Amino acid sequence: MGESSMRGSRLGSLSYETDEHVEPADRQLIQYACEKEHLTAVPFSVEAEEIPLTWTCRCGGQAKVITPVANLARPDERPERHVRTHWDMLMERRTIADLEALLAERLELLHASGRASAEHDDVDHIDEGSVIEQRKSA
Predict the structure, then answer these.
(1) How big is the CA angle at 45 (ends 44 and 50), to the nearest 5 degrees?
(2) Cα 19 from Cα 102, distance rounded (Å)
(3) pLDDT by residue (tens digit) across 32-86?
(4) Domain 27-65 carries which CATH code?
(5) Strand order of the sheet with strand 62-65?
């Protein structure tokens, strides 16, 4: 052991500071009550700007504040925004008649391409009805 080792101290594991002359911040105790009558007391700083109106209770429900305090958060008074679906946005651009005409046009194209590819196939197609009849007769 050389002279470079530090004896008598555990580095980082022990603080030599004391709580003398240290005052904690002023706090206020806010109480919340849930529907099952559980009381929850939560300490907040006196300087807290907004104290929540609800708190999650230990039973999983929402507890409402029962302590009268001046700096409570205000409830959200904005109207609930309607969620626009894909259908809503589609109906803003097109009418039902337009959609029916578009569907008919696309189906015609699909059937036309199906007929064209069936004419070019070298594979003989078997009719499902004849296959079922052959199985029944066998």
Answers:
(1) 75
(2) 78
(3) 999 998 999 999 999 888 888 889 999 989 999 998 888 787 777 788 888 899 9
(4) 2.20.28.270
(5) 39-45, 27-33, 62-65, 54-56
Residue 107 tokens read as 């189906």
Which residue reads 């849930």 in tokens? Answer: 34
Residues in the chain, total: 138
Cβ–Cβ < 8 Å for 64, 35: no
